[in-house]
Amino acid sequence: MTRSLDDTLRWTATGSTLLLDEVATVTDWDVATLPGWTRRHLVAHLAANADALGNLVSWAATGVETPMYASPEERAAGIARGAELSGGQLADWLRRSSAALGDAMAALTPAQWETEIRTAQGRLVPATEIPWLRSREVFVHAVDLGAGVGFADLPGEFLAALIEDIAAKRGLDTLPEGPLPEVAAWLAGRPHALAGAPELGPWL
Predict the structure, then answer these.
(1) What is the pTM of this model?
(2) Concatenated DSSP letters for the chain?
(3) Domain limits for position 18
(4) Is the same domain home to 160 and 202?
(5) First vs last Cα of the chain: how many Å apart?
(6) Are residues 123 and 62 part of one domain?
(7) Spatial separation of the C-alpha atoms in residues 13 and 3, rounded to whole Å
(8) What is the mean pLDDT of the chain?
């Protein structure tokens, strides 16, 4: 499917609300999520990611090259520091950084959206990719948080776009048959209910 800027902005807003609502229900912040990470690490990553994507929005708005992170080491250190915060502090950081990113994106002009920026992986893409990058983060990691949200709770159009995106990145021409949420979970390397599907490595 062809995803539009309006689509990805809408998914970012919807996913951010879903994530913030879920984070508000968390009581045990030390539950393991991704390998080597607890819920504290995951939410710190999501808050820092919004700040980092805000750097790319600033790049698009001003034309001044502003990378997401100074270095991979700086990114990792920021998450580690964030994981030392309380649950309330993490929730506040996530709320503030998500709102700031949304406001900054809303202020971009059509011409600024076409500015070429560089992702943390080094890819040169137009700024229109920023909300797609954020929507993937908030939706997939909302599932990883393990506080009640599953792939079946994510919008169908987003899941279709996610499946197309990951399949292309993994170089897969054929996919197993099954419900969209299960295929998306399988492609993302998350637990799924597809019988006989080969195991894939982690993604995102």
Answers:
(1) 0.96
(2) ----HHHHHHHHHHHHHHHHHHHTT---TT-B-STT-BHHHHHHHHHHHHHHHHHHHHHHHH-----S-S-HHHHHHHHHHHTTS-HHHHHHHHHHHHHHHHHHHHT--HHHHT-EEE-TT--EEEGGGHHHHHHHHHHHHHHHTTSS--GGGS-HHHHHHHHHHHHHHHT-S----S-HHHHHHHHTT-----TTPPP-----
(3) 5-149
(4) yes
(5) 21
(6) yes
(7) 15
(8) 96
In b/e form, how buried is each residue of 113-132, taking b as 16+ CB within 10 angstroms?
A: bebebebeeeeeeebbbbbb
Phi, psi of 157, rounded to the nearest 5 degrees: -65, -40
Residue in this structure with the two tokens 């250190």, named with its chain if needed: 77
User: Residue 14 belongs to a domain with what CATH number?
Assistant: 1.20.120.450
How many other CB atoms are found less than 10 A from the CB of residue 179?
Answer: 15
Question: Looking at the structure, do residues 132 and 156 belong to the same domain, yes or no?
Answer: no
Q: Which long-range contacts (CB under 8 A, 24 or more apart) does 27-30 make?
A: 27/87, 29/86, 29/87, 29/90
Q: CA-CA distance, 204 to 188, in Å (whole number)? A: 7
What is the mean pLDDT of the segment spanning 163-173? 95
- Tell me if 50 sits within 8 A of 23, measured CB to CB: no
**Residues 20-38: pLDDT tens digits?**
999 999 999 999 999 999 9
Of 9, 3, 6, 4, whose CA–CA distance to 105 is shortest? 9
